Amino acid sequence: MLDITTFDARAGGNVLYKALAHPLAAERIAALYGRLRKPVAIVDPEGVAAALLALHPGLAEIEGLYVQDVQAIGVRCAGLVGRPLSALRRAAAGSVLVAAFDAGRLAERLHPMLPPGATLATLDEAKLPEGLLTNPRRYLDRLNFATNFAFFREQDGLSTRLVTANYWAGYGATAVRLWLRLFDEAGATLATWEEAVPDGPAGLMIDSAELRARLALPEFTGQLFLHVIGPAGHDVVKYALDTYGTGKDRSLSCTHDANAWPSDRYAGIPAPDVAEQVLLWVQNSHAVPIPAGDIRLDRMGAERPVAYDRVIPPFASVALDVADLLPGLRWPAQIELRCGRHLVRPRYEVVRDGRTRIAHANVERADLRPDPVIPRLPAELGRGYLLPVPVLPRATFRTLIQPTPMAESLRTLPLRLDAFTPDGTLAAQRFIGCLPRDHGVAVDLDEMLPEGILASGGHVDLVYDFRDGGEADGWLHTLVRAEHRHSGHVAESSFGAHIFNTAMTYRDEPQSYSGPPPGLSTRLFLRLDPARRSFAVLIYAASAPWHAHSATTLALHDGAGALVAETPLAIACSGSALVFADACFTAEQRAAAGPRGYVLIRDRTCRLFGYHGGMDAAGGFSLDHMFGF
Length: 629
Fold this sequence. Notes:
Hypothetical Protein Tm1070, Chain: A, globular
């Protein structure tokens, strides 16, 4: 496992990690290593050395590790034992490397302590170019590293399209730019370029087919690295990603932004059904190879992980057929990925009947433990944690729900389904049971709900129910799979539970996009698919009674961010709405929005939860949860 700290649920992302993991940092640190006279003494005043040497292990002939904190003396770090900084002058070193950024003042103080003849260097020599920094005066400012990865492909009749908006403009950003690097399947750099972003809330789109033509690239499957320069207010790069077939390929799916910080484990990967192939895309997020055996797959709850026995080069992408490691494992079993913090949110691809669909795994938390308060939350929080799941019209679509353990410590899932019609009427409640961690349950709503219930659609809330005991951690997740009954097309998504629309709070719930809880407002992004009917299922989930109806606005923007038209919408509390963009806006309005146009869904009275996708006339469709900012 990589010895790196990537994400803290309390503090957010680790900026140092993102600074060290940047592809340009790899080049600059390698050049810095090459300039150092050997052997090298490392001064580690801020505990950076472990991450530095894990992500950039190419430093040869390390003389020793020198620390300031007396409690770190004698402590092993990155295979080295901490020595007191006061002993630095006696080091048999040709160079001293200060493992810190913005280290000028410290370097000045160290000069009298250097070993005779030794040179002094700091990580400042490996900083990104100043033109890529939003705040050059403070290198480890989180806004300097608004970065992320995207699965990106233009190969074998399959294309990808990344869509987002300049939401940083809403926080005051101007002159935003994108620095982009495209890696091929082997991890080699195919292209590096920059793109200007229009001021204001402009729509952004990067299409693999257009990109290949513009840059004269060969076919490719790999990773697109995005670095936003000049953002404000928000350092997370969010996007929607469509995968679509061209020519006779009918594939269609959508997913969303990668999690920007690697985890040790991921969950929410389905085992293949009969006649399916499940490919796990193992995409190395770092400039250091993934050793053989560091990627392991396990049936969820089995605790018998099986290792992948090949090395994966830096930034490379490997399509791992899960059946090669877990032969005979079938849906509805689930797969746990153990990857030693080498990957940001991995994608999986399901191949069935000549079509492919892409979805993502979720971070399995190592820091969570069952919360004894959740079974006895006060009445003011009503039903507490809810996981809203869309139900498309049942005459056309079949819906399956597969609850997923999403913390290493979780052993049981005590669950119930509450089914609501679009007008907010509770139509049915069904106790699923207290499921064990290794359960093989996929709840088929055809079997769980009578035929007439939710015939025109609606939603179900997955909620905790402790009638048979069990535990809860508030990180309840599920995979939702929708199947078109006539075309055979399938789409799936996954997400987690929250407390919705209560004035009272518990810990950080109801979550807010900005500011402290409770989160009682909505800002959701709906991308417009130029070739299909774009739709959203907007769910007004409520843990306890809230406003009787939402006061929702659908605002159509053009590619420059200008408002084209608005449509009001009222959704009943605990209800939902299936919304098609072409039913809300005229053909003329949509044409005015253009190919980079989008819909911003706003509500200042409640928080809506949404899923979005596209539908075509042949029964193809995509589905994933929406993102907000």
